[in-house]
Amino acid sequence: MERLKLVLHYFQSNSESISNGICVVLALVSVKLYTSLDFNCPCLPLYNKVYSLGVMVVPPIIFFFLGVLVNRHTAVMMDEWMRPVGKRSKNPAVVKYLFSAMVQRALLAPMVWILVTLLDGKIFICAFSVSVDPALFSGFPNITGLDAIKILAKVPCKEDVLFRNSSFRKAVSRYVRCYSQAVGWSVLLFLIVLGALGRLIKPCLDDHATFLQTRYWSNYLDVEQKLFDETCVLHARDFAQKCVVQFFKDMREDSNICPPHPQVIPHLTEEWDENEEERLHGITKQEQVDQLLKKWYFSKPELDITKTYRPRMSDFWKEGKERFLSSDV
């Protein structure tokens, strides 16, 4: 139970961990979906490869676009790519980094599906049983009116009357499954070697300082958008609360109805009057909200916060004077 809590805490720690968790869930869903569905090969020469190609290609495409949709990097990348320049310049390296991270995570579930189908071998048998040379195996059924291609196309269908308790069908299936598993393990080995080489060679080819800068600003864009969304939600809640309180106050004044507890409403209004400017940031009209959102999109603030934290010269003078007086004493 403690380990499960640690895993959940890791996946909830930041958006990158959440994206990783979602991609892992999609990969597990792909495995569960493949093992739960029953794939029935048509056992016809013209349709076996088409059916197998559909099973191998269509679900990975679906999982890829699902991975793109649920990945937060997609929204952050599109916002950064499509936004006007305004006061903040665009960094193509950041967009490239976000795109790479999005594609890598979105490819996890499709690759798991393809590897599972190859290691299982049923789809490969359905597709390539007609390509096997029947002379390599004994027990080939000689039936008049059927050519070898049609007979081989029925190899995946073990319930067919041609191959009931047939050693030929078992031998061909085992032969094609071995090729399928060999291809699957080769693909897995290639992906592992490619990832290892990329992890080892990339620091040698790229400037590590540039990579750190790109990663920092990509994380900054994600955090900035989340903070802006959270601030908008808080402002909308305070704005709605102020409108509701003001509505009830106006209704009371218009109808001249005395409330049963007259001390409650003044207390709320006094509290609102004191904290309204702080919580609403001076944005108290619909036109101001629309203008703020429009300005955020078309002219995001420049990445310079020195104005916020710039100390005043009077503070330096006051601090120096106090130090001088204390030293004299």
3D structure, described in words:
The chain is mostly helical. It has 14 helices and no strands. α2 packs antiparallel against α3 and α6 packs antiparallel against α9. The longest helix is centred in the last third of the chain and has 48 residues. It is elongated.
Ordered list of secondary-structure elements with their pairings:
Blueprint (H helix, E strand, L loop, with lengths): L1 H10 L3 H22 L11 H23 L1 H11 L9 H15 L1 H13 L1 H7 L19 H6 L13 H39 L2 H48 L8 H17 L5 H13 L7 H4 L3 H16 L1
List key phrases describing it.
329 residues
How is the main sheet built? none
- Total beta-strand segments: 0
Series of H and E elements = HHHHHHHHHHHHHH
Task: Assess the beta-strand content as a share of residues.
Answer: under 5%
Helix count equals 14
Shape: elongated
Rounded radius of gyration (Å): 33 Å
* Mean model confidence by pLDDT: 80
